[in-house]
Amino acid sequence: MSNETVIGKNVRKVDIVDKLTGAAQYAADLKMPGMLYGKIVRCWEHAHARVKKLDLSQAVKHPGVVKVLGPKDVTQKKYNASVLDLMVSESMHDMLGDIEDQPILGDYVKHQGDAICAIIAKSEEAAERAAEKVIVEYEPLPVYLTADESCKPGAVQFTPLKQGNRAFQLPEPMFPKHVLGWGDVDAAMKEADLVVEDEFYTPKQKQCQMEPHAYIAKYDANGNLTCWTSTQMPKCVQAKLSRLFEVPMNRMHIIQTTVGGGFGCRLGLVSEPQICALAMAVPGRPVKLLTLREEDWVISPSRHPGKYWMRMGFKKDGTPVFCDAYFRNYKGGYYLDASGVAFTAGAWLGGMYRFGALRYRGESYFTNQGITGAFRGYGNPQTNFVLEQIVDRACAQLGIDPVEWRRKWHKDVGDDGWCPGVPYTSCALDECLDKGAAAIGWKEKRAKYAHQTGVKQRGVGVAVMNHTSGAMPMLLEHTNCTVKLNEDATAIVTLACSDMGQGSHTALQQVAAEALGFPLEDVQLKGGDMDITGFDIGAHASRTLYVGGAAIKMACDEARKQLFARAAKHLGVTPDDLEMKNKVISVKNRPEKSVDVKTITRLGVYHFVDPMTGKPEGEPGQIVASVSYFPQRNSPPFGASYAEVEVDTETGEVKVLHLVNAHDIGRAIHPAAVEGQLEGGIQQGLGNVLTEEIYYDKDGHVRNNSFTDYKMYGPSDMPKITTILVENPDPFGPFGAKSVGESGLVSPIGAVANAIFHATGVQVTDAPITPEKLLKAIKGKQGARKAAA
Amino acid sequence: MSKHAITLIVNGDEYTLNVPANRTLLEALREDVGLTDAKYGCGTGECGACTVLVDGTRAINACLTLAVAMDGKEITTAAGLAMDGVLHPVQQAFADKAAVQCGYCTPGMVLKTISLLAQNANPTEQEIRKGLEGNICRCTGYAKIVDAVQQAARTMNAETPARRAAGGNA
Is the predicted ipTM greater than 0.90, yes or no? Predict the structure, then answer.
C-alpha cells in the first residue's frame, strides 16, 4: 500500500471545475441547429383506463406544430424499460419470464401519466399548447393500488402473459417450491425457544435525482439514429433501442451527456423510446424532449413498495434457528425489474446471517401505481427495515446486546454471500461494528437511555448490511477497456462507464495512473460516445469501480508490460531489471542507464529507418492494450450503522441526533468520494425510514409529486454524521477496493428504526415512521400498560 | 402575448432581449442569452437549482422571476464567477472539499453560498444549514457542502483585509 502514489488520495475530482463553473453540459443544456421540440401527451385523469377516442385534428392545426403522433404512428413493438433481460442468458431469460409490455404510445392506461400521443413543434411553447388541444375520451377501469386488490379473481388482467396479475415469483426450476434459502424451516421451528413474527410495509420512495430526464434525438438520411441521453446504462440503451427500432448497432449512436444523478432511475430506458420515435418521424431534424418535475415523478421507476412478512426463531442463547420471509411487492402497471427486486430482497437476507434454515419467497404484482424499478439499494432497504427490527425485538426479549448478537451471527469470509455458491472473500464487519460503537458511545448510551421518563426520550440503535460489487454471477458483468499511449507519453483510457456524480471517473483515472505508474494528469478517461468505447454493462449494482477498475488495471498492466519490454530492448537488459520513476525507465540501481518513457512511445509512433545505418529506430507500433473482462467475484462490502434519536413522545416526532456509517469498502481509492457516497446514502436512508413515500389517492393519482409535498431531509434536518472507512483490501478488487455506491443508504434505515425502538419500546412496522404512526404506536403501548395495571 | 424589450447585464455583458411578459428569467438566460448553468429542477422554487444573483449578492430563484421584472439588473450566474481561470473562493472551497457529486445543484448552491456569506461573513454551522434550506442536493447529504461553506468563509474573511489594502473591492 505504501508505494502507491495516486490512489488513496483526495485528488481534485476530474469533473469538478466544469460542474462548478456551469460548463458541464446536461442533456437539457444542448441546442442544435434546426432543432424541434417534442411533448408527450399523458393521461393525468386516470390511473387505469382504455382510450375510447383520440382526436388529434385540433392539435395538428395548431401554429408551429410539425407533426402529431398517435399510438399507431410509431412502431407497434413493445419494450421492457429495464435492462435485466440483456444481462441474463436466453434460457435464464425464459425461466425468469421477463416480458416486453411497454408501448411507446398506448391506448391502455396502466398508471397516471402513461403516454398517449406526442407532438413535435417548432418551439416548446407551441408543443405544449398543441398538447392541450388533443382530445381523449377514456373508459375508466377499476384502480388497483395493492397486490391484494389486483390479484383478486375477476380483476382486470394487465397482460395475458401474467395470470392473476402476478408479474413474478421466484421460478420453480431455480428455486424449488419458489423458495430461496436452505435447510428445513418447518423442522427448525420446533427447536425455537422464541419466535418473533410481524408484517411490515416498506414504502415507495422516489430517487429525486436533481436533473429531470431530458433528451435529444436525430435520425438522418443514412439511417443513423443518434440519441443524447444521461442514462446510467448507455450500452444497454444502445442495444435496446437498436432492437426496438431495428436500427443496426453501428447506426444506433448513443452520446452520453453529464448525468445529473441517477440512483437507479436511469438504469435502463426512461423516455429514450419516445424521443427516438419522435426523431424518426422527422428525419434530418433533431428533436429535444424535456420533462417537467411532476412528469419525471410518474415516468421513471420508483422503489418497489410492498408487504414484507417475516418470522424468525431463536434459541435462548440467541441462535437464529430459522428465518421465514415473504415479500409481496407492488409493481406499477408494467413488468420492468419485477424479477430483480423480488429476488434480491431475499438475496441480501440470505447473505446477512447464519440462519439455521431460511425460506424466502418473493413475488411482484401489477398495480396501477406508477412504475417501479431500480433504486439505489435494490431490495436491500426493504429487507433491512424488516430484518433488523425483528432481530432487535428478539434481542430485547432474550436480553442480548444487539451489537453482540450481530457480531456473533453475521456471515463471514467463506460463508456464502447473497448468491449461493459464491463465498465472501473479505469481511471487516466486526471492525465496522467496533468502530461504530465507539463513535456513537454504544455501551454508555444503551445503559443511560434504558430507563427514561419525561416527554423526550432518547435511544441508540444499530443495524448491519451486506451488499455487492457487481451482480456476477447472476447478471452479466462484462466490460471492455482500451488503454492507448500517445507519442508524448500521455494515456487515453476508454471505458463506457457512467459517472453519475459518484466520482467513478476520478477513481478510475486514479487506478489507471497508479497501474501505469504515470502522474494522474497524464491519464485521461473517455466514455460518453458509445461508438468509440467497447461494451460495458453500465452503472448498476455498485460495480463501476470494482469491475471497471479491475479492467482498467489489467489493460494498464498490459500497456506497462509492453512499455517495459521495449525499454528493455532499448537498454539491452530484461524487463525484470527495470524500474520506472517520474516516467523514466532505468535499470535497477543503475539510474544512469535509463530511457525516457516519451522516447519509447515516440519511437513507436514516429517510426523511421535511420538513413545513415539503414536500421530501424526503436520498436514500431503504438502501445495499445485492450481487455474484455468478466469478473469472477462480487466482493460484497459490509456496513454497520448506528443512530442516536430523540423522540417527542407527545407528538411522535423523531429527531436524529447522530448517525454513524461505518463501512468495509476494501480500499478507498478516493476517500472523500467514498465518504460522499456514505453521507449521501444517509440522507436517502433517513428519508426512507422517516419521511419519504409517494402517496396515491384512491383513484391512483399521485398526491405528492413535488419537493414541497414529498419530504426529503434538507440541510437543517440532517443529523451529525460520522463516516468511518474500514479498509481491509479485498483479494479480488482493484487495489483491494470493493463497492460503496448503493450501500450507504441501507443500514441507516434499520439503525434509526432500532433507535426508535430503544427510545420508546415500540416498533413501527409501517415505513416511513411518520410522527402520526409513531404517536399511535406509543399511545397503543401506554393504553396497553394502563389496561394491564 | 405582448413582447417587451429589456436589458439584462449578465456576468458583466449587456443583452438586449425582446421577451414575452410570461418569460421567466431562467428561460431568458437559458434560451435567449444562451447561458445554461442555471438549471431547471422543479420550476416551482423548491429546489434552488436555478439560483442566480441579482446585483451581486441577492440570491433569487430564476424559475419564479419574470425576465421583464429584471430589466436593467445585473445578474450573476456560476459561469461569471471565475476570473481569468481562477475560481471564486466559494468554488475553490467546493473543489477542495469534494462538495460536488452530480453537479446539477452545484451552480445554484455556489451562488446561494455567496449570497449567504455576503449577509453573514461568519455563519455558524446552523446558520449555514438554515441558509441553504432552499437548495436541494440529493447526492451529498450536505456534509461536504457545509464543510466547503465554512472553508469559503475563512478564506474570504482572510482575503478581505488584503483586498482592502490592495484597494480592491471587499
Answer: yes
